[in-house]
Amino acid sequence: MAELIDIATPADHQEGTFAILRSWLKSPGDAVCKDEPVAELETDKVAVEVCAPADGVLHALVREIDEEIEPGSVIAQLAPAAAGDKARPGSDGGGENAANGAAKASPATPADETKVPRHSPAVRRLLNEHNLAAETITGTGKHGRLTKQDVLDHLETAPSRAAQPAPSVLTAPAAPPATGAAAAPAPGAHPALSGAGVVQVPHTPMRKQIAAHMHKSVSVAPHVTALFETDLTAIAADRRARKAAYAEKGVNLTYTAYFVRAAIEALKAVPEVNSRFHEDRIDIYKSLNIGVGVALGDDGLVAPVIHEAQDLNLLGIATRLQDLTTRAKSGALTPQDVQGGTFTISNHGVSGSLLAAPVIINQPQSAILGLGKMEKRAVVEETDKGDVIAIRLRAFVTLSIDHRVLDGYQTNKFLTVFTDTIADWRGE
Fold this sequence. Notes:
With about 425 residues, the protein is an alpha+beta fold. It has helices spanning about 95-105, 110-115, 120-130, 150-155, 205-220, 235-250, 255-270, 315-330, 410-425, and strands at about 5-10, 20-25, 30, 35-40, 45-50, 55-60, 70, 75-80, 170, 200, 225-230, 275-280, 280-285, 290, 295, 300, 305, 345, 365-370, 375-385, 385-400. It has three domains: about 5-115, CATH 2.40.50.100; about 120-165, Irregular (Dihydrolipoamide Transferase); about 205-425, 2-Layer Sandwich (Chloramphenicol Acetyltransferase), CATH 3.30.559. The chain has nine helices and 21 strands. The strands form six sheets. Strands 11, 14, 17, 18, 19, 20 and 21 form a seven-stranded mixed sheet that branches. A hairpin with a 4-residue loop joins strand 4 (about 35-40) and strand 5. The termini are far apart.
């Protein structure tokens, strides 16, 4: 028998973390072509397809569903196709012996259980929660695949189908009426919750990794947060003036684009903020790769990266932001879209918060910028005729820093440049 070929996960599918083997797209004995997806991994940020490195027959699955997979790990083995004899899908590929060998070597589930539809984790969750059949929904993604938005749009047009509870949520039954002496609460149970019913929601892989990443960050980096306030009146006027012209180009000009542009100026003024801590040194990056937090509702959040942001003007930033945000919400980000960030912006004010402190640093970065809710406030302004009270559009701005890398001087200088750039915006 020809030497087996390892099918391994990409060595760079994530930055320093693990992934979860979420589904097999092929079964032992199936014919596969080079670059054809055979499995899907799920990280806290994106879904990653693992593809066959050559034509052949899937021989053995050496890792199991829901197992943690490190970058570069072998997850399956491929029997190469014989020269001039490319296996046909649906055939036994390597004959009876090959199929038998695959069955013996594989620790995974039976073939009929491994053929999982190729949908993203977010799509599968929605389908399961609302008891929907994928084939009843028209997919608008690549090769006709379903996106999260496709399912949400379907639910809006067919609300009666969304009545089924999620199968992954377990509701504890109410306790039966006690007879005689009062029953003692179960060991470890909180007396106030006894018999009240509990909804148990299992952690998703994304939630597990967000929790691990946040815990690591606060454990490793001493966080300090500085608070400034900025005036947004100038950029609000500039946005009104530009928005129609940007829309003609198919670009939605958001306030976040201005925040990224101002952050670029602040990072140029204080390059130490764009850095990474090592035990023997600090690496200061010349490339400004700015991640922008995108909330995915109950699914968590991701921070796709605008790479080489220092080379972009406002239109370029707005265009890149729109693309990344749209693909983040539809589950279409690639691993490269969320890798290589050197600084992150969290515009948490879009969901209503005035202040969040500290915003947890996205390790191994050294700082994260937080933008609070924009609102009109009464402020005192100096004029030639004395102090007056004016109504201005304002927001709180924070910079949470790794105090091993940055001190108060650099932090305040960064925020000064950032807020001045916003308040004194003169266009480009």
